[in-house]
Write a structure and sequence with these properties.
Layout: E1 2-3, H1 11-22, E2 27-32, E3 35-40, H2 42-49, H3 68-76, E4 81-85, E5 99-102, H4 105-111, E6 120-125, E7 135-137, H5 145-151, E8 162-164, H6 172-190, E9 191-201, H7 203-218, E10 222-236, E11 239-250, E12 267-271, E13 283-287, E14 298-300, E15 303-304, E16 310-312, E17 317-320, E18 323-324, E19 328-332, H8 337-344, E20 357-362, E21 368-373, E22 382-383, H9 389-400, H10 411-421, E23 427-430, H11 437-449, E24 454-459, H12 469-472, H13 478-496, E25 509-515, H14 520-523, H15 546-557, E26 565-571, E27 577-583, E28 588-591, H16 598-605, E29 611-614, H17 622-635, E30 640-643
Parallel strand pairs: 1-30, 5-24, 5-25, 6-9, 6-23, 10-22, 23-24, 28-29, 29-30
Antiparallel strand pairs: 2-3, 4-25, 7-8, 9-11, 10-11, 12-21, 13-19, 14-17, 15-16, 16-19, 17-18, 20-21, 26-27, 27-28
Helix pairs in contact: 3-6, 4-6, 6-7, 10-11, 11-13, 16-17
Length: 644
């Protein structure tokens, strides 16, 4: 029975293990500050990869800034945090597959690394633009908290998470880059092999953001630097600025199919004939009764057409009520002879570009044509005619009746992007969710095409200005605005499409970032004073609930936080009742009650869960502890048993 770590992994350790697996002969040890530590022998590594390793002051192409190394370390370092469920602020908690997470997105990204590794189809983020007025996240790189308090009037209970990045700041670009780099580095891990990330940005950091993304995702994986035409603009120096950018990168472009058309009613029609020539000799096909005609009644005989001719070898080709009335043999320069014959035989047909052909038919002049869906659209890199920031503001104002949020993106813009790259069951992730425009867009698209896309929103609970209308209306932080928007937008969507949205998921589970559920003794028992152990037998914090523990366990075991959770009561012969959590239809069973008996363990083992988790201190007596493993070996030896 193994003990859960209840903390995120050290990504540096993981990277070292990967390198050691590839080049075990490069692994060595050295002395640093008097201690023997693990190391990689660069000379051996250079020999293995047959290339030069650049070091020291040697010139090389690179993009760097102050504290970049610390930003990388920040992304890799582990944390002892958790996500605590908040049922009272959720909507349809037990049934929804959507998540709304409150907390610093860097820490949330770390917590999601194992559970959502490679599971996100699309990420959209609209991070704070570095304008000198917007707030940026403070990640404590080079100055201590006392100095930070001296320069900032905006800080939270944890010591100043947010600060205005004024243009006079000597670290104007540095602070913004240090904020973005570790978050994008972690976000990449969550994307599926064919996943795509979209990032809204303006002129101030567009160039730097692209360089970061080139490094994190690989410059070969850029799909486009999209230009969003606002249709309006503000005077900015010599020009009226009427656009913003949306950088678009793939996790691996080679795994990404061409973007599909979301307008299924749009068709493309092509002629199915070519001029008869030596390269395209004539062929003969017999068309069956009932073959389609794009007209009502008509009769054709002999030779018809211009340069792409058809020769009717039968007496005639007669159509009535839009159908061929008798078998008709035709000689022509068919562009896709085999495809036409396969279509007649009832097989699925694709054109020479791999696009599905819906039908072949004769037009009203008797010439053979074919129709296909416009499934590959190669959208333009300039997005125009969709919406602008004023539309986004108006949309949000109409939901609330007042202006509570500045410059939200319009949901139709995000919906357009989601349509391009996702499937109907994809997960869409936004870790700068703001007013939750992305959640609104996902629900609206699901209502329109019957999809079951899921969203995960992450937002820091940044306080609203006490003088703002939002604060006066009771919205004390941005998260409260975002959650209320999802509630109102979901209700509005269902009211406007009552017949098609009965099963539409407009709910969301609220989870809040917090310190670990476990006391310090859980992580560093060797540092605790032995005299304290009598009072620290229970290593779980007093204010934590069993459901709090459950979600931290789910994070560690890589179980989706949207999984179905059933709270069950297990009754033993003595009449005592125990509470068990059944997650994902028996994939995980957890019991955090005290005084767990052999009878309880046996009942759970007989259900054969994949995982079973309990508190280490909750076994009723030494006999239970002694027989625990044997019970599972008897009834469910493949169950993975964990304790905390």
């Amino acid at each position: 029975m193994d003990k859960l770590k209840m903390q995120t992994k050290n990504k540096a350790d993981e990277n070292f293990k990967k390198l050691a697996e590839l080049f075990p002969n490069a692994v060595t040890e050295t002395i640093v500050d008097g201690e023997v530590v693990r190391a990689i022998d660069k000379d051996v590594l250079m020999q293995e990869i047959s290339t030069k390793v650049v070091e020291g002051r040697e010139e090389r192409y690179q993009f760097t800034w102050p504290d970049k190394k610390k930003a990388i370390l920040k992304a890799n370092s582990p944390i002892n945090k958790t996500l605590r469920p908040c049922r009272e602020e959720s909507v349809d908690f037990d049934n929804t597959e959507n998540l709304y997470i409150e907390g610093d997105n860097l820490e949330v990204l770390k917590l999601l690394q194992e559970t959502y590794l490679g599971k996100i189809k699309m990420i959209y983020i609209d991070p704070p633009y570095n304008t000198g007025n917007d707030f940026v996240y403070k990640d404590d790189f080079t100055i201590d908290s006392e100095e930070w308090h001296d320069i900032s009037g905006d800080y939270d209970e944890e010591g100043n998470r947010l600060v205005k990045n004024l243009e006079g700041n000597g670290r104007f670009h540095t602070d913004w880059l240090n904020m973005m780099y570790p978050r994008l580095k972690l976000a990449k891990n969550l994307l599926s092999d064919d996943g795509v990330i979209f990032i809204s940005i303006d002129d101030n950091e567009q160039e730097n953001l692209k360089k970061i993304c080139d490094e994190v995702f690989g410059e070969v994986n850029i799909l486009a630097n999209l230009i969003w035409d606002l249709g309006t603009g503000t005077t900015a120096g010599h020009f009226t600025r009427g656009h913003e950018y949306i950088l678009c990168y793939a996790r691996n472009k080679t795994n990404l199919q061409n973007f599909k058309n979301f307008n299924v009613n749009e068709k493309i029609v092509h002629g199915a004939l070519k001029r008869i020539s030596q390269k395209n000799p004539a062929g003969e096909i017999t068309f069956p009764i009932g073959f389609e005609f794009d007209g009502e009644d008509a009769i054709f005989t002999g030779e018809i057409g211009e340069s792409e001719k058809e020769y009717i070898l039968s007496d005639e080709m007669r159509f009535k009520n839009g159908k061929l009335v008798a078998e008709t043999r035709i000689r022509a320069g068919f562009a896709m002879k085999k495809q036409v014959e396969d279509y007649i035989a009832g097989k699925e047909v694709f054109d020479t570009k791999g696009q599905k052909v819906n039908r072949f038919y004769f037009n009203n002049n008797g010439i053979l044509f074919y129709e296909k869906e416009k499934s590959v659209i190669n959208p333009r890199t300039v997005i125009s005619g969709i919406a602008n920031t004023k539309n986004g503001s108006a949309e949000l104002n109409n939901l609330f009746g007042e202006k509570y949020f500045d410059f939200p993106k319009p949901s139709v813009l995000i919906k357009y992007i989601v349509q391009l790259v996702t499937n109907k069951d994809s997960i869409i992730f936004d870790f700068f969710s703001g007013s939750a425009t992305t959640a609104h867009a996902v629900m609206q698209l699901n209502a329109e095409d019957g999809g079951n896309r899921k969203f995960i929103m992450v937002q820091l609970p940044e306080k609203t200005d006490e003088k703002s209308e939002a604060y006066k209306a009771g919205y004390k932080n941005i998260c409260e605005i975002g959650k209320e928007r999802i509630r109102r937008a979901g209700k509005k969507i269902k009211e406007e499409s009552p017949l098609t949205t009965q099963d539409l998921d407009t709910g969301f589970r609220v989870l809040k970032l917090d310190e670990s559920n476990m006391k310090d003794v859980y992580y560093t028992p060797e540092e605790m004073n032995i005299d304290l152990f009598d009072t620290a037998i229970d290593n779980i914090k007093e204010d934590r609930t069993p459901e709090d523990l459950l979600f931290q366990v789910m994070l560690e075991l890589g179980i989706l936080l949207s999984s179905k959770i059933e709270c069950e009561v297990l009754r033993v012969e003595s009449g005592v009742e125990y509470t068990c959590y059944n997650v994902a239809d028996g994939y995980l069973i957890a019991c955090f009650d005290d005084n767990v008996t052999e009878e309880v363990i046996t009942k759970i083992a007989k259900r054969k869960p994949y995982y079973f988790v309990m508190k280490d201190s909750s076994m009723a007596n030494d006999s239970v502890a002694a027989n625990f493993e044997q019970i599972f070996e008897t009834y469910s030896k493949n169950t993975i048993r964990k304790v905390l």
